[in-house]
Batch of 3 targets.
Target 1
Amino acid sequence: MTLSEVVGVEGAQGDFTVKVKQHPRYIDMDKCIACGLCAEKCPKKVGNEYNEGLDKRKAAYILYGQAVPLKYAIDAENCIYFQKGKCRACEKYCPTGAVNFNQKENIIDVKVGSVILAPGFKPFDPTVFDTYDYANIPDVVTSLEYERLLSASGPCMGHLVRPSDHTEPKRIAWLQCVGSRGINKCDNGFCSSVCCMYAIKQAIVTKEHTTGDVEQTVYYMDIRSHGKDFEKYYVDAEKKGINFVRARPHSFAPGPDGKGVKTRWVDEQGVEHNDEYDMVVLSIGLEAPADATALAETADIRLDKYRFAECDSFAPVSTSRDGIYVAGCFQSPKDIPQSVTEASSAAACAAITLAESRGSLTKEKTYPPEKNVSADAPRIGVFVCSCGINIAGVVKVDEVVEYAKTLPGVVFVENNLFTCSSDTQVLIAEKIKEHALNRIVVAACTPRTHEPLFKDTLREAGINEYLIEMANIRNQNSWVHGGEPEKATAKAKDQVRSAVAKAGLLAPLEYLSVNVVQKALVVGGGLSGMTAALGIADMGYETVLLEKSNILGGNALRLNKTWKGEEIKPKVEAMVRRVESHPKIKVLKNAALKTAVGSVGNFVSEIEVGGETLAVNYGVGVVATGGAEYKPTEYLYGHDDRVKTHLEFDAFLDVSPHAAKAAQNVVFIQCVGSREPGRPYCSRVCCTHSVESAIELKKLNPEMNVFIFNRDIRTYGLREDLYTEARRLGVIFVRYEVEKKPKVIKDGDALYVVGDDHILNTTLKIKADYLVLASAIVPNQTKELVELYKCSVGADGFLTEAHPKLKPVDMSVDGLFLAGLCHYPKPVDEAVAQAQAAVSRAGVILAKSVMPLDSIKSMVTNKCDGCALCVDTCPYKAISLTVYVENGREHKRIATDKALCKGCGICMATCPKQGVDVGGFTMNQLKAQVESILLGV
Amino acid sequence: MSAKKLGSVMVVGGGIAGMQTALDLADSGYYVYLVEKKAGIGGVMAQLDKTFPTNDCAM
C-alpha cells in the first residue's frame, strides 16, 4: 500500500483495526506498464528527492529506475493540470489509458492482529547551523547528497564532481557529528551510531570515483567503529592514506569565486590552522522521523526524550502498547545490520503473539497437472518484447520476429508491446496450448526481473517451468547500443538464435522439496540461547536447549545493570524458571554436541549428556555459544587484588559498596586486549560499561576521583547520554595512544597509574585504590561446532553470518542461525534482539512441513569416475563421494545433497570428464548456446 | 473464551527494516499489509551508493 499512511489504530493485540489513508497516485496500477511516456511528455520539472534535489524529475515520475512497485505516480502538488487546470499531456500519451485524474483520497479500515512500526529516520538538516553555512556554500554538502554524487545512478553518473563548477574535487574534508553529540541549539545529545563508518566508507570509495590523486581528511571527536569488522575497516582506511584529525572546525566560508570551502580550526596543542578544501561533507546524524510524535499519538505508544520509541532492554522491539512493535531507526539510531536484525525480532514478536492463527489468512497457489514433454521434439515459441520504446526504439523488433521464424525448432513467434504485462501472460498460456509449444524463449530483459513471472506462466499453462530461456535484448542490447540500431538489431538476432539453440535442449527439471522436521535445537543456555529457545517454543515448536555447564544464564548472571539501568539478575532468573518449566522446551545441562549430519529441515545430532548419548532430530539450529571476558596479562592483573576486570569489579560493587565508597581514586583503563594486534576488534560494550560504573561510583561518593584512560569513547547511540552525564559529574577522561599506553606500577604498597594527559600536556601519576581493566570479550571455543556443521568462522574466532548486512543472523549453512556473543561482543538489548531475530528466521523454515527448493542443482552423470576433484571445490560442501558395487566390483561416484547445493556450477567447471552437470545449464546446453552465438562472428 | 486472533500484521514503513519484517512474516504464514508513505518502497538504503565493509552495491 504505497502513498499511504496510518491515521488510526483501534482495538487490542490480536484484533486491531488500523485506519489507512491512501493518497491518490492518479495512475491506475493495473494498467501502468512503466513505459515512461508520461514522464517523458510531462512538461513540469521538480527537484528529484531520490537524488537529494541535486537534479530534476518530472511531476509524473517513478522514484528511481528499479522502483518497487514499478509504477509511475503523478505528484499533484507540482502537476500543471492540478495547479493550473490544464495540460493532461501524460493522459494523452499514455498507451494503456492508465492516467486517471479522478482518483480520490481514500480511507480504509484494515483488520490485523499486530502492528509493526518501521518509519525510519529523518536525516539531520544542517541549515540550522549558520557557522557551517550549508545553505549558502555550494560545495558544502550533506553526507546523503555526497552518497548520491558518488552513485552510478546519481546526478553525475558516479563520476564525482563538486556542485559549484562541476569539476572533480582533489581535497575533500568530512566533518563528523553534525547534529549529533551536541547539546547546543537544535542539536541532538545522542550519537547517531553510523556516521563514522559511512564517512570512512565514503572517503575510501571516493578514490574509485575520481581520476587523479585525491586527499581525504576526516575531522572527528571519537571514531566509533564498534561494529563487527568495522575497526579493521578503519585501520585499513588509515593505511590507505585517509587523514583522521581529532578536531572540530568551527566554521566554513566560501572559497575564491564561491568555489570550494575555507576553514579555520585549532588542534589539540592550541595551534590554529587555515585550510582550503574543494568540498566539505557534513556527516549528518539520524533523528527520529519528522512525524514521530503524530505516529506515536496515533498508535498510542510512548516515546523517549529524543522522540524515539521507548523500549525495554529485555524486550528491545516491544513498545508500551501490547501487540505493537518497532524496527529500525525509530527505536534508536542504528546501522543496517542492526535494523535488519530488529526487523526480524519484531517479526518474531508478532508471530509469537499470533501463533495460534498462523496460516489462517494466507493461501497456497495451485497449478494444473503438468504435461510431460521431455521426449517430444522441440516446438519452440519465441516472444519478442518491444518494452514500450525501450527495446523497439533501437532494435527493429519486426526483423527479429521474422528472423526467429526461420530458426530450427521454432513453430510460433510473436511480438508484444510488453511481454511482462498480465494480459500477455494470459496470451502466452493460450499460445502454449494452441500451438502445443514445449519450449519457450522470451527475448526481453534480464531474467533477474521477470523470469519468475514467466516460469509461473509456463506452470499455469501445464508445462514444466524450467522449459524457458531468456535473451536479454534490453539491458545487454538496446540500452547500451542506443546509437547503432542496425548493429543492435543484428545482435538481437544473434541473442535470439543462441537462446533458441539452448532452448531446444532444455529438459524439464523435477520440483524439489525437503520435509521439515518442525523442531529446533538451541546450542548454549545463556541469555541469547534462552531467548531463542523461549521464542521458538512460544511459536509452538518443540525445542531442545543444550547447555555445556550445569546452570542456565551464562554471563548475564554476573552483570548488574543494563545501560538503561534495569536490573539484570532478576530478569535472567525469571527467564531460567520459564525455560525450565516450558512444556515445549527440553533442557539438557552438562551436555555436549557430538555429531551433526543432514541439512536444512532435517539435521540429526548425537548429544552426550550425563554419560549417555541422545539422538536429536531437528529442522533448524540456533547457535548461541557465547563468549567470555578476556583475562588480562597486563597492568599487574593477577599480581594485585586491587586490579580487577569489569565483571570482578561489578561483583565487588555488589558485595562491598561501602569499601568502594571509601575509595579516593578509581582508575579505568579501556581497550585492554582489544584494538591491538592479536585481537584487533573493538569489544563494543566496554566503554559504556566503564562510564556506567564511573557514574555509579560518583553517585556513591561525589568526592571520589574517577579517571578513565581511553583511546576513543564509544558510547554509541543513546548511550552517549551516559558519557555526557559522567562528564557532568566530574569523571576525568584521559586519552592515550596505543603506542603509549599508561603504566601501572607498585611503590611499596601503593598502586600507581602513570600516563600522559593530552589536555594538560603533562604526565599524570595517580595513586589508585582500585584499577578496573575494561578487558576484551573473546568468543567461546567453537572449533568442534565449526567442524561438525562445516560453518564459517572469522579470523577473530567469532562465527560468521551469511551476509554482514542483509543476513546478520543466518549462518553460512542453511537452517542454522546465530545469536549473542558467539557472533560479536554486544550488550543485553542487542543480544536479546538478535536471539529474537533468530527465532523469526527459524520460524520461516519451521512454518512449513515441506520446503520447496530451487531445481537447478548439480547432478552426477554416468561419466563420473569418482576422482573427487569437485568434492573439494564445492563451496557449500554439498558433494560427497559414495561407493557402489556393480558386477562384483567397487566403484566410486559423487552424490549431491540437493538441500545444500546452490547450483553455482563450480563442480561442472572443475570436472575434467563431464561427470557432473547442472540442471538447466548442462554442458551440452551451454555448448549449443556458445556455438550458436559464434555463428554470428 | 476470547475470539481467535487475526493472522495478519500491518508493517508501517517500507525501508530495509519494514521490508525484512514483512518478508519474515509472510514467509512464516502471516498475511502482511506493508504501508509506505512514498510512491515506492526501498527507503534510504536504496539511495546509498555502496555499503561497507563489503563495498557491495546497496541497491
Target 2
Amino acid sequence: MTTVDFAAWSCPVPLRDTPAVVMGHGGGGAMSAELVEQLFLPAFGASPDDLGDSAVVTAGGARLAFSTDSYVVKPMFFPGGSIGDLAVNGTVNDLAMSGATPLYLSTAFILQEGTDLAVVGRIAQAMGLAAAAAGVRLVTGDTKVVDSASGDGVFVTTAGIGLVAPGVEIGPRRARPGDVVLVSGDIGVHGIAVMSCRDGLSFGTSVLSDTAPLAGLVAAMLGSGGDVRVLRDPTRGGVAASLNEIARASGVGVSLAERDLPVPAAVRDACSLLGLDPLQVANEGNLIAIVAPGAADEVLATMRAHPLGAGARVIGTCVADHPGMVVARTALGGTRVISLPIGEQLPRIC
Amino acid sequence: MKYLDEFSDPVLARRLLDQIHAVTTRPWAMMEVCGGQTHSIIRHGIDQLLPDGIELIHGPGCPVCVTPLEMIDRALAIASRPGVIFCSFGDMLRVPGSGRDLFTVKSQGADVRVVYSPLDALEIAKSHPDREVVFFGIGFETTAPANAMTVHQARRLGIRNFSLLVSHVLVPPAIAAIMESPSCRVQAFLAAGHVCSVMGTDQYPALAAKYGVPIVVTGFEPLDILEGIRQTVVLLEAGRAEVGNAYPRAVPPAGNLPARAMLEDVFEVADRTWRGIGMIPGSGWRLSERYREFDAEERFAVGEIHTDESPLCRAGEVLQGHIKPHECAVFGKECTPRNPLGATMVSSEGACAAYYAYRRLELVSL
Amino acid sequence: MCLAVPGQVMSIAERDGTLMADVDFGGVRKDVCLQYVPDATVGEYVVVHVGFAIQRLDEESALQTLANFEQLGILEEEFGAK
C-alpha cells in the first residue's frame, strides 16, 4: 500500500503560488499561518515559539501579557454585538489566554470618508461599555481617515496589556498526553450570527453572537488551583484551528468525541444549510482549556459555577498517538481527522 | 433539524450495519455516484464500519470536480472583464484554472461574489443595471432547475444585464460511460437522491438492465446511505439487476414535473467534457435557442482556450473509480487542498479532498 | 453533489409573479422559491437546494422508513432468539 509522507503535509507549500494577498490570508487557517511563519517571523527575527494569543514579556520586574488585533468585520453590527464589542473583547480575551489580568487597551480607527458619524458613535459607545464590563481602561488612541475608495466603513485596531501573576504558566506548548480538553460553552455561535446577515447569504436566525470578555472566567479557573496548561479562544478558524495549533505546538495528538461537542441546534442547522463544519466556525465568547488529568473535575466545576462557563464540558483528551493531529470519533463509531481550515469559510452547494 | 437528526441515529445505524453484515456473503464493489454521499460516508466514517468485502468506489458526482479546465479559464477571463460582477457558489472559488483561481482574480481587482442561490445573482443584476452580472451555472440535475428558473425570470422581467455561464452535467450518461470503460469494476450504483428528486427514476431501469447492475436511489444522511448499501447488497446477492429506492421520502418515481418542464424549456442536451474523464456525448445541458441571448459564452466572446492539466494528477482515474485518492503518487505531497493539482482535491466533496481531510490517520499508518 | 435539506414552510407569498415561501430549518429561516412545488402548503416540509424547493418531503414515507429500520432490528433479534 502507498505510504504517505506525513512530513510533507505539515510543511505548507511556499507563498510563491499566491504572489498577491488573497482573502484567505486573513482567514485564521493554514494560509494565515503561512503568512506569519514564512513572511513576518523571518523579517522580524522572531521565533515560532513566540506565537500565542498574546506575548508574555518581562518589564521592570513584572510579567506583562501584550497583544494586538485588527477588526474588519462585515457587517459592523450583527445580532448580539458590533465591531466595537469585538475590538475590546477580542483583545481582552487574547490577554486572558496567557493567564493575564487585562488592564489597559489602546485603540486606532481607520475611517472611510463619508461614514456616518452616528455609526462611529455607536461603535465608540459599544467599546466604552465593553471595556467597563471587562474591567479594562481605554487609555490611548489614534484616528485616520482614508478616501472613499480605500476603506470600507470602519476598521478598528486595539492593543492591550495585562499582568501575569507569578507562577502562572499558560502556553500552547504545554499540553501532554493524558491531559483533558475542556470547552467553556457552545461552539460556532458567533460565526453563524455574523453570517446570517452577510450580503448574499442572509438568513434569519435566533442565534446571537457570544462576544464576551473571558478574563473573569480565566481568573476563576486559575484560582481553582488546578494545573491549567493551555488556554485558547477559538476565534477565526474555530475549534478546529485552535486544537490543531495546540496539537502541533505541543507535539501531542488530540482525540475528540463528536457526540460530546456542544453545538447548539440552531448552529448545527445553519451549518447543514450552508455546508459548513461547526468546528471551523468562529467563536468570540468561549475558550478551550487543556488541563492536567487530575485537575479536570475541579477546573470544570469552577467553570460551571461562572456565568460564562455554565455550559462547560469535556470534549476530548490529549494522546500520544498521531502527534500534531486532531481526530474525532464520529457518532456512528468511525473516525475522522479534523483539519486545520485552509482559508475563508465558504458556503457550499454540494 | 427534523428529518435530518432522525436519519443520523447511531442506534438505528448499528442495526442497519448488523443487517448489512448479515446479508453480505462475498465481496462487492459499488459506486456512490454523488460527491455529497462521498463526503457523508467519509465524514461519518461509514466506510470503516462496513464488512471488509464491501468496497465503495467514489464516483464523479461532484460538479466542481468535473467542470472542465477550459470552462474555469473562461470563467476567469469573464470575471476579469471591467464592469462584470461575477457570481458563483462558494465551492468554485478555489478551483484552479490554468495557473489561478477565482480568489486570485478577485485579489487582482475583479468583482467576484459568493452567493447562496442564483436568485441572489439576479437580485444583484437588478440593483446594478449599469453592470454585467454573470452567474457560474454549474451542477447536476439537482441544481439545474434553480439556474433554469433564474434565466427564465431574467427573460420574463427583462433583466438584460444578467447572463449564465452554463456547465451543467447529467448523471445517466456518466453511469453509462463508466460502465462502458473496459477496466470498470463497478457492480452496482447508489444513485444520487436529490438528482432523482428532480428527474425521477424512469431513466434507470434501462441502464440497470443494459449493464446488469442494481441501481439504488440513495439519500445523504448516515441511515439513508446505510439503507442504500443494504438494499444494494440484497439485490447483488440475489443477482437482481433492478432499480430500488432507499430515499422514497424525497424521491417520487416521476421526480418533479414542473421542474422537468422548465428544464425542457430552458436547456437542451449537449455534449460535455468532464474534467478528468473526457468528452461524454449528450452528458450536459446548454441554454436552448429561446434563451441563448442569456448565454455568457455568447455575450463575452472569450475565444479559443487551450489548457493543460497537470501531468501528475490522476483525478480521472479517481473519478472513474480505478484508483483510490491515496494511490496517486502526488496525493498529500505536491497535491493538497491548499495547493491542488486537480479539482478532486479542491471541493470538499471531491474524493481526494475528503480523503485528505478525514482519512490521513489510517493512510499514515498503512 | 447537491446539498439539499428539509425545511418547514411557514408562510407563502407571491413576489414579482413568483411563488416564494418563508422556510424554517430548525430555527434558521430562509426565503425559498416555491415555484417547483406550487401545491405545498403551510406546515409541510420541502427539500431545499440553493434557495429552491425541489421536492415535497413525504412525511408518511419518512416515518415508514424509520419504522422499517426499527423493525429490521427487532426481526433480527427475534430471529437470533429462535
Target 3
Amino acid sequence: MNFLLVLEWLLKGFVLALLLLGGFAYLTLYERKALARMQSRIGPNRAGPWGLLQPIADAVKLIFKEELTPAKADKLIFLLAPVITVVPAVVITAVVPWGPSLNIFGHQLNLYIADVNVGVLYIMSIASIAVYGIVLAGWSSNNKYAMMGGLRSTAQMISYEIALGLSFVSAILLAGSMRMLDIVAAQGGYWFHIIPKWFVVLQPVGTAIFLIATLAEVNRAPFDMPEAEQELTAGYHTEYSGMKFALLFMAEYTKMIAISAIGATLFFGGYNGPFVDQIPWLGPVYIFLKIFILLFGMIWVRATFPRIRYDRLMAFGWKVLLPLSLALVFITSVGIILAQQVNANLIIAIPVVSLLVAGVAVAMIDRTLRRKDYERR
Amino acid sequence: MDYTLILFIILAAVAVASAAGLLVSRNTVYAALFLVLNFATVAVFYLLLGAPFIALAQVTIYAGAIMVLFLFVIMLLGADKLPKAKGLPWQRPLAIVLAAVLLVEAGFLLFQRLQLTANLASPEASINTTEALQSLAKTLFSQYLLPFEVTSVLLLVAMIGVIVLTKKEKGEQEA
C-alpha cells in the first residue's frame, strides 16, 4: 500500500466530513432565512452581516449548555445514541462522486472516497443502520414521550425504506449497474441536444417516490412524526440537552445534505452539466447547485405542508408508495427490454406508462386518505 | 504475517465476544445490540472474503431491517429486563455435554488441518467490479433458480399467513 495514497484518502475523507459539518451549520441558517421569508419575517440578522455568524453563535451556546442525564436513563446507551445517529449521516456520502477526475500537477485526483461496485446497496445499508440512533435515544431516555417518538420513528423509517429501496432499483436498472460512477456516466449526454439524459426524465415517478421517501427517512416535515411537538413534546430528543442535543440536530441536517447529494447523483445527473467535459472543475459546482436546489425543495415543503396524521402516514407508505414503486420496477424493466430488443425509441414508454400508473395512484390516495364515516361524526 | 490474518483474528474475537455477550446479557435491548454487532462483524468477514454484495446485503437485511423489528417488538412489549429465570433442570448438563462435543470436534479438526496452509481469502482488485456482480446475478438466476424461487414462495406464504392471522373477520369488534 502506497503511503501517499493513504494520505490522499485521509485528506479526502477529512475534507468531506468538514464540508458536511460546515454545510450543516449553514444549512440551519439557510433554512431559518428561507422559512422566515416564506412567512413574511426577516429571520436571523443580528450576528454578523445578514446573520452569517448565527451558526457559530448557536454552536457556542450549545457547547456551554448544561448536560442533563435523566436519573433513571440507561447511561451508556443514552451517551452512545447521538454518536450512533451522527456516524451514518456522515459516512453515507463516501460513495457519492463529486466530480470527474481532476489532473493536478500530473497526479490524477478522483473526487470520490470509495468506488464500490455495490454503491447503491452501500447507501441502503447505511440508511437502514441510521434508524438505531433514534430508537435507542428514545428508549434510553426512560421517558414515555421519547419512547413513543423512538417507536414511531422505527415504524416509519422501516416502512419508507422499502419504497426508497425500490425507487433506487429503477435508477439501477436504467444504468445497468449499482456503481455510482456508472450511474452518473449513464446520465451524461442529451436527447435532441436539449433534454439532458437524467433519470428524472426517464423515471419521473421514481424520482418523486425517492423524494417523498427521503423526507420520511430523515424525519422532515410533513413526516416529522417522531418529534411531533403537540403530541410528543419533542419526541426522541426530549431529554437531550447541550452537545448531545447538538449531535442529534447535526445528524438530522447532515442527513438532509447527504440525501440531497444521493438524489442529485441518482436522478439528477450527478456532476453532469454543460461543458463539464472541457472544464472538469465545473463538476463539483454543478452537484453543489443541484444539492442546493433539492435542499430548498425540502425547506419549501416544510413551510407548505401540515404534518400528516400517523395512521395516514403508514397507510400512504404501505398502500400507495409500496405498490406504486413495485409497479415502477416492472414498468422500467419491461421498457428497457423493449428498447433493447425491439426499438430504442420505445424507451419513451417508461415515463409515459409510469405517469399513467402514478395517476391511478393519486386516485387511490384520494380513496385511502379520504375521511372515513366514523371520522365525520 | 499477512494483514488479512491480523484483521481476521481481531474480527473473530469481536464476533465471539459479541455472541457471548448476547447470551449472557439479561437486558434484552443489550442482547439485541450485541446481535447487531455480531451481524456487522460477520458482514466484515464477507468483505474480507471478497464478497461486498453479500456483506452489504447482510447489513441491510439482518442488521438493518430484522434487528430493528426485534428492537421494536422488545420496546413495544416493554420486555427490556428479563427476570432471573429458573432454567430447566436437564438443560445445564445437556449443554455441558454438547459444548464438550463441539470443543473436541473443533480441536480435532484444528489439529488435523494444521499442516495445510490456511487459505484466507485475498481480496483481489477484480472482485470489486460490476462484472463480478453480474456473474453473481447470472449464477443466482440460472444455476440456483429453483432454490431462489422456492425461497421466494416460502416468504410469500409467510407473508400471506401473517395477513390472514391479523385480518379482522367481518363483524368483529375493533380492537
